[in-house]
Each structure stands twice: as structure tokens, then as C-alpha cells.
Amino acid sequence: MGTCLIAKSSHEVFAMHLCRHLQLQYPELSCQVFLYQRSGEESYNLDSVAKNGLGLELGPQPQGVLRADIFSRMRTLVATVLDFIELFNQGTAFPAFEMEAYRPVGVVDFPRTEAGHLAGTVHPQLQDRDFQPLQPGAPIFQMFSGEDLLYEGESTVYPVFINEAAYYEKGVAFVQTEKFTFTVPAMPALTPAPSPAS
User: Fold this and answer.
1) Ranges for the AstE/AspA barrel-sandwich hybrid domain (predicted)?
2) Residue 73 Cα to chain centre, angstroms
């Protein structure tokens, strides 16, 4: 996934401005924005308990392993998030802008036997290509028997969470997303609270 910023929806204006701030501060990280909530769907993600929640997903990193480079990147991003919040609290206004993001449109399971066991794995040409376009006819799985399974969709999608260990038990080989662009409205400066009368 690289450096991925995960938010509920494009309507979370503060979170979208925060994402943009991180993208501008760290263009070399290619911070992709993944908006996980489908219309009318309830959210159970941790960041949904906050008014303007944002998740940071960094990788590649195996589960149960702490890599110094990823840990350092996370600390830097969290410090930049806190700097942005401080700018907002100090009354900084932020202009409107266009943003590109990805939203889920489907989930693809691994190929399985009739008994439900894995019959193949993610194809090498798809592995590690999160947020890259997947065209109809491209290989997505390599069967244990040797043949390739091809993507049979009718349109280009952008796979994410490809071959994530945490999703094996959930039957998810990858999540299909669509890329879209939207306008994020300006975020005006905070108005200072009136002073209490003495």
C-alpha cells in the first residue's frame, strides 16, 4: 500500500484538507487517499469514532514486524498531522482544491477448491501494484496447477490491499476501487470564541 491515507468519505472536509497537507509536504511518498465508506453503509473502523478521523496505513511491512524505516515515516507523518491541527487552531484558512481519491467498488477472493482451500495465489504481475490500473484481460492469479486466471471485469479498476495477510481469513485477495476526482471546499479560518465578560 505504500503510504495510504484512509478516511471515511469525501465529505469529511477537515480530513481531506489534512490529506492534501500531507501530500504537499511529502510528494515523494505518493500519499494515496482511500475513502472506505460506501453510501448508506455504517462504519466500524477505529477512525470513525472521531469527528474527522484519518487512518495512516504504511508499508510494505509484514505483520508482527517493526521496521525502523516505516516506524520513522509514521512518526514524521503524525508530527505533520499535529502541525496541521495547530495551523488550523491558530486560525489559518485553507483554499478549495481538486483531489484524487479511490473508493471501493468490489472485493475479489482467491481462487478456491470445492472444499474452500486456496487453489492459487496473487499473480506476480499484480503483486505490489496497489493503486495501479488493472485492465480487463490482465493476469490476477497464478493457479497452483500453473495456469493464469485473468481479470474478467468490463472496466479498469485500481486494486488495493493486494494479498494482505490480515485478509486471507476474510476471503479477500484484493479490493477493487475506482479512481475519481472531486472538489474539496475551502476551510475558513476559525473564528475566535468570545471572551468571557469580567
Assistant:
1) 98-179
2) 16
**pLDDT > 80? residue 191:** no
pLDDT at residue number 47: 56
Report pLDDT digits (tens) over 83-137: 999 999 999 999 999 999 999 999 999 999 999 999 999 999 999 999 999 999 9
Q: Which of 57, 114, 147, 164 is catalytic?
A: 57
Q: In angstroms, rounded to a whole number, what is the distance separating the alpha carbons of residues 114 and 100? A: 40
Looking up residue 31, the CATH number of its domain turns out to be 3.40.630.10
Give the predicted TM-score (pTM) of the model.
0.88
Are 36 and 43 within 8 A, CB to CB?
A: yes
For the question of residue 164 being annotated catalytic, the response is no
Which residues, in sequence order, are bridge partners of residue 149? 141
Q: How far apart are CA 32 and CA 4, in angstroms?
A: 5
Q: Which among 100, 102, 171 is positioned nearest to 130, based on CA atoms? A: 102
Phi and psi torsions of 166, nearest 5° = -65, -15
Question: Is 194 within the bounds of a domain?
Answer: no
68 CB-near residues (< 8 Å, 6+ apart)? none
36 phi and psi angles, rounded to 5 deg = -85, -20
Kindly give, in sequence order, each residue whose CB lies less than 8 Å from that of residue 25, ignoring residues fewer than 6 positions away: 80
How many domains does the chain fold into? 1
Q: Which contiguous run of DSSP H or E holds residue 122?
A: strand 120-122
Cα separations in angstroms, 190 against 52, 78, 81: 16, 22, 18
Bridge pairing between strands 32-35 and 3-7: parallel
